[in-house]
Design goal:
mainly alpha, Neurolysin, domain 3, metallocarboxypeptidase activity (chains A, B), 20 helices, 2 domains, three-stranded mixed beta sheet, metal-binding (chains A, B), homodimer, EC 3.4.17.19 (chains A, B), zinc (chains A, B), metalloprotease (chains A, B)
C-alpha cells in the first residue's frame, strides 16, 4: 500500500524535527561548553543545518502534500496537519532574498547594538535599526498576506501562534489603566512593612547548586532527561528528552540563581511533559511563548515567591549555608519580604513582579506603532522615556537605561515582548484553576510536595502540546477564556496586603 | 563567470564538512554530557545527519563533477580532488542495502557482545559475529572492486588511506620474529631493577585535573580551541577549532589519567595543527589512524614515559599531591620505574608499551585470515589463544580474556587493529627525526618546554593534513620511508637497559 500524503508529511517533518534536535544541542553547547575559538566554525555548522531545515520546509512537494493530506477533524492528526501548514506558510511565504536580507540586517545591528548600548548612543544605532525595522515590516507584510493577517499579527504569530493584537489590546489597556495605581498601592503597603533584611554572604556556589538541584527534583524535573549547567545568560534549551537549563551563580546573593533555577525548571517541565507519542512532530511541540512563559512564571512567581514555598525552603537554605534559625535574615518572614520586594527601576530584566508589566506595556505600544508606521523610529527614545514616566514615574537618564537596553529589536525579534506579560497573566489563571481543582496542590507546597501540581499541569497544559490554540488550551484547562482576573487578584493579594500569600 | 567543477565540489564538500562538525559535537555530547533518557532521540538525530552526509556524498552530480574537475598536479587543490574522489568511491561503491545490512548486523552483534564477553561465551556470539563477518567481506569485495584493491586492503583504506597489507606484512613479520626475544630480554633486565614502588594515595581528582591541564597547556594544547572533560572511555573528539579530549580519574592511582591526558593531547594537537586554510575540506583533515595514533603515542610513549619528562613532572606531582621529596615512591627514579614497568597480560588496552604489539600482531593475523576465508570463524578462539601463547607465553583461561575482549570485530571495525602498532612505529621514527633535526627539542623536555617539538610537528606532520599519503608524509618528515628501525632501537634502549632513556 502506498504511503498516504499525511504519512509522507509526517516522515518529512520528523526528519526536520531530528535536525532541529541537533540544532538544539549545538545551540546549548555554543552557550555552555564551546571554547571561544570555535565560534566561526560553529556558526557555519548551525547556519548549514538551519538552511537545510528551511529548504526541507519549503520543498515544493510539501505544498502539494499539504493540499492532498487529510485527517479527521478534531484529532491530533488534524492538529498536526494544521501545524505543518502553519510552519510551511511561515517559511514558504518569505522570498529567500528577504530571509537573507533580514538576517544580515539583524546580525549587523546586533553587533552595533552592543557598542551603542554601552555608549547610550541611539543616534549611532539609528541607521542599522532602521534597516532592521524596514526588513521586519516587509517580512510582516508578506507573511501577513500569506497567513491572512495584519502585519504585526504575522510577527506575533511567529512566537505565539494564534494570538492577535485584538486579543492583547483590551487586556493591556486594562493593565495600563490599573497598573500605576496598583504599584502606588504596593509601595504604600511596603512602607508599612519592616525593612528588607538580606542574610550575609558569602554563599558558596557548591551549596547553591546542590540546593538548586534538590528544588528542581522536588518540582518534578527528570534528571535522566535533562541537565543543569552554568551560562552567562540563563536559558532553557536542549532537545526532546533532553531539557537543559542553565543558571549563573553569585556568591554574594543566592536568590538570583535560586529563582532562576525555579524559573527555568518551569520551562523545562513543560518540555519534559510534552506527549511522547507526538515528539519530533509539529503538533508535539510546545504551544508558544506565552504558554511557555506561563509555565516558568507559574513556578517562579506563583509558587516560589509564595509564602508556603518560602516556609518550605527557609530551613533548607539555613541548612545549606549553615545559618542559625535565630539569625533574623534567615526567617521565613524576612525571606518572604525579600522575594516580594517592590522596587521600580529602569531595567526590565531586573524588575520585580508588579513593575515588570509596565516595561512590557511600553515596549508593546512602541513596537506596534513602529510596525504600523505611526511612530518615526527617530522619536523612539522620547516616546520610550515618556512611557516609563507615565507608568513608573521614573525619568530615564540615558538610552542605555532606556530604549537601548534590550536585544530584541536590534536582533529582529519584534512581536515577542507582549508574550512575557501574557505569560504572567496565564500563570495566575492556571495557578488559580489548579488550586480550585485539587486542594492537595496548595497543601503540598509548604511540604515541598509538588507532585499534585505537576500532575495537573501534565494533563491540562504540557500534555496538550500544540493540539489546540493557546486560548483553546487555557479554556479547556481553566474553564474560561484568557483573562486578567486571577492575575490582578494575585498582585493585589501579594503586594497590597489584601490576601494570604 | 560560472563556478568551475572544482569550486562546485569544494562548496559541496564544505557543506558535508560542516555537517560532520555538527556530528562531532553531537557524538562528544552523547558520551560526555547527554542524560541517559535522550539516547534514542540522539541516535535518531545522529542517524539522520549521517544519512544526509552519505546522500550528499553519493549524489550523482558528485561523480560528474569529479570527472570534470581539474587542478594542477602537486598542488593542495589536486590533493583535495584526490581526497574527494576517495571519499566518494568509498561511499558510492557500496549499495545502500549493504550499508544498511552491515550497520544492522554490527548493531545487533555489538549488543550481544556485551553479554557474551561478560559470560565468556563465544558460541553464543558466533551466529551474529558470522553475520558481521559476511557483511564485512561483501563490503570489502565491492569497495575493493571500486578502488582497485584486494578486499582486506579496501577495509584498511577506510581507516588508513593508502596503507596496504603489502606494506604491513614485512614490518609485522619482523616484529613477530623479534618481539618474544625482546620481551624476554626486557623481563630479564627488569629483574635486575629495584621493585616498583607506587606512591600511596588517595590522589584527589581536583589535583589530578589541575595538573592534567597544566601538562596539556605545556604540550601546546590551545584551551581556546578545545576542552578537557570526563567520560567512561577516554577519547579525542569534537570538531574543527574545537578538539575535545576526555579522561577518567581514579583517586587510587594518578597515572592512568595523567598518561591518558597526554595521549589524548597528542591526538588533539594534531587536530589543532591542521591548516586553517583547508579546514572543512577533505584535504584539510587528519591523514588516517596510523598517523593519528603516531601523534598520541609520540606524546605518551616517546615523550611522557621518557626519563627527562619524568624528571620534569616529578616535582609537579609532589607539589600537586603534597608529597615530600624524600618520600621514596615520589622520586624520579621510582616514577620512571613505574611508567616503564613490563607486565605481560591478557588485556590489550592494559598492556605496556613493549607487549602491546603482540596483542596487535595476533589480531592482525587473525582478521586477515578471517577476511581471506582461510580461517573458519568457529576456530577463532583456539587460534587467538595460540597466538597469545606464541607471542606472550600466556595461557588464555577464557574467551572473556581472549578473543571476546575487544569491541572492534563485533562492531564491524575490521582493518583497524594494525594502525595501533603502525602508529607506535611511526611515533618512534618521528621522534628520532625531530630530535635529530633540532637539539632544542630533546633539551626542552626536562624543562617542560615542548614548543620546539610542537613547532617541528606542526610543520612536518600536522600542517600536512591529507596533502600526501601517510608514507609520503613520513618520508618528507623523516627523510626515509616508514621503518621499524627507530621503534626497535627505542624499545631496546628503554626496556633492555641498552640506552639512556
Amino acid at each position: 500500500m502506498p504511503q498516504s500524503a499525511y504519512q509522507d508529511l509526517t516522515s518529512h517533518f520528523a526528519r526536520i524535527g531530528r535536525i532541529r534536535n541537533a540544532l538544539g544541542i549545538l545551540g546549548w553547547d555554543k552557550d555552555v561548553m564551546m571554547p571561544s575559538g570555535a565560534a566561526d566554525s560553529r556558526a557555519d555548522s548551525i547556519a548549514t543545518l538551519s538552511v537545510l531545515c528551511h529548504d526541507m520546509l519549503t520543498d515544493p512537494r510539501v505544498g502539494d502534500l499539504l493540499d492532498r493530506a487529510q485527517a479527521p477533524a478534531g484529532t491530533w492528526e488534524a492538529a498536526n496537519l494544521h501545524e505543518m501548514r502553519r510552519a510551511w506558510l511561515h517559511a514558504a511565504s518569505v522570498p529567500a532574498e528577504l530571509v537573507e536580507a533580514s538576517s544580515r540586517a539583524a546580525s549587523r545591528c546586533e553587533v552595533a547594538w552592543r557598542t551603542a548600548r554601552r555608549d547610550g548612543d541611539f543616534a549611532a544605532l539609528l541607521p542599522l535599526l532602521s534597516d532592521v525595522l524596514e526588513r521586519t515590516r516587509e517580512l510582516a507584510i508578506v507573511k501577513g498576506a500569506a497567513l491572512g493577517l495584519a502585519p504585526y499579527d504575522a510577527l506575533l504569530d511567529q512566537y505565539d501562534p494564534g494570538t492577535r493584537r485584538a486579543d492583547i489590546d483590551p487586556v493591556f489597556a486594562e493593565l495600563r489603566r490599573d497598573l500605576p495605581g496598583l504599584i502606588a498601592e504596593a509601595q504604600a503597603h511596603q512602607a508599612t512593612l519592616p525593612p528588607v533584611e538580606m542574610p550575609a554572604g558569602p554563599f558558596p556556589v557548591a551549596g547553591q547548586e546542590t540546593l538548586g538541584r534538590r528544588i528542581m527534583t522536588a518540582l518534578g524535573f527528570d534528571m535522566a532527561r535533562g541537565r543543569l549547567d552554568v551560562s552567562i545568560h540563563p536559558f532553557c534549551g536542549g532537545a526532546e528528552d533532553d531539557a537543559r537549563i542553565t543558571t549563573r551563580y553569585d556568591d554574594a546573593d543566592f536568590l538570583p540563581a535560586l529563582m532562576g533555577v525555579v524559573h527555568e525548571t518551569g520551562h523545562a517541565l513543560y518540555e519534559q511533559g510534552l506527549p511522547a507519542q507526538w515528539r519530533t512532530l509539529p503538533v508535539g511541540q510546545s504551544r508558544g511563548m506565552s504558554l511557555h512563559e506561563s509555565q516558568s512564571l507559574l513556578m517562579e512567581m506563583q509558587i516560589a515567591r509564595s509564602r508556603p514555598f518560602i516556609d518550605w525552603i527557609a530551613p533548607l537554605l539555613r541548612e545549606t549555608f549553615g545559618a542559625a534559625k535565630t539569625d533574623p535574615g534567615w526567617s521565613a518572614d524576612a525571606l518572604y519580604r525579600t522575594v516580594t520586594q517592590v522596587r521600580p527601576g529602569f531595567i526590565r530584566v531586573d524588575a520585580d513582579e508588579i513593575t515588570y508589566p509596565a516595561h512590557v506595556l511600553v515596549r508593546y505600544e512602541l513596537e506596534t506603532a513602529l510596525i504600523d508606521g505611526t511612530l518615526p523610529l527617530r522619536d523612539l527614545p522620547d516616546a520610550f522615556n515618556a512611557g516609563i514616566r507615565d507608568l513608573l514615574g521614573l525619568e530615564v537618564p540615558n538610552d542605555r537605561l532606556g530604549c537601548l537596553q534590550d536585544i530584541h529589536w536590534p536582533s529582529g525579534a519584534w512581536g515577542y515582548f507582549p508574550t512575557y506579560t501574557l505569560g504572567a497573566i496565564l500563570a495566575a489563571q492556571f495557578r488559580q484553576a489548579a488550586f480550585d481543582a485539587d486542594p492537595a496542590i496548595a497543601q503540598g507546597i509548604a511540604r515541598g510536595d509538588f507532585a499534585p501540581l505537576l500532575a495537573w499541569l501534565r494533563t491540562h497544559v504540557h500534555g496538550q502540546a500544540s493540539r489546540l490554540s493557546t486560548a483553546g488550551i487555557v479554556a479547556a484547562a481553566t474553564g474560561a477564556p484568557p483573562s486578567t482576573r486571577a492575575y490582578r487578584a494575585h498582585l493585589r493579594e501579594r503586594y497590597c496586603g489584601t490576601g494570604p500569600h
